[in-house]
Design goal:
Layout: E1 2-4, H1 7-25, H2 38-57, E2 65-67, H3 68-73, H4 75-85, E3 102-104, E4 107-109, H5 126-135, H6 137-142
Parallel strand pairs: 1-2
Antiparallel strand pairs: 3-4
C-alpha cells in the first residue's frame, strides 16, 4: 500500500517535526532526513509517487495506491476499503472515537483522523512552497492537487 499526500503538506510536516527535534536533540537534527532541501524532497517525492503509480498501472492485485485526503475525507469508507484489500474484516472499533494526543517519539499519534493537522505556512516559507509546486506541477495535476501558493 502506498499513501500519498499533497507535497506541501508533507514537506511542511518534515519541517514541523524538525523544529521539535531541534528542541529535543539540538542542531544535529538538521543533518537527519528532516533537514532535506525542498529540491531533494521534490526529487524523492516525484520518484516515489511515480513508482507507485507505475506499479498501480501494471494492475498488480497486491498493490494499492491511496490519497491521504481520501482517508481524511471518508475515513470509515476508506478503512473498509483497506480492510477488504488486506482481507481483514472491518470492525467499527477500528474507527477512533475522539481526538487524543499521545506522545510517541516526538509526534502525536492516535485519535481522530483529521484532514488538517497544521497550517503549512507556519513551517514552510511561501517562496519554497511556490518553488516546490512549480517543480511538481505536472505530477500535482495528475494527482488532482491544487496549488496552495
Amino acid at each position: 500500500m502506498f499513501i500519498y499526500r499533497h507535497p506541501v503538506d508533507v514537506l511542511s510536516s518534515y519541517r514541523k517535526r524538525l523544529q521539535v527535534e531541534i528542541q529535543t536533540i539540538g542542531e544535529k537534527a538538521k543533518s537527519s532526513w528532516l533537514g532535506i532541501s525542498w529540491q531533494d524532497f521534490a526529487t524523492r517525492y516525484e520518484h516515489y509517487v511515480n513508482t507507485a503509480l507505475s506499479v498501480q498501472a501494471q494492475g498488480r492485485p497486491n498493490f494499492m495506491v491511496l490519497p491521504y485526503e481520501t482517508l481524511t475525507r471518508e475515513p470509515e469508507a476508506t478503512i473498509r476499503k483497506i480492510c477488504s484489500f488486506v482481507e481483514v474484516d472491518f470492525d467499527p472499533a477500528m474507527m477512533p472515537k475522539k481526538a487524543s494526543k499521545k506522545r510517541n517519539h516526538h509526534t502525536y499519534t492516535g485519535g481522530e483522523i483529521m484532514a488538517k493537522t497544521k497550517n503549512w505556512s507556519d513551517y514552510l516559507p511561501l517562496e519554497e512552497a511556490k518553488l516546490l509546486e512549480d517543480r511538481l506541477a505536472p505530477l500535482m495535476e495528475q494527482l488532482s492537487y491544487t496549488r496552495y501558493s
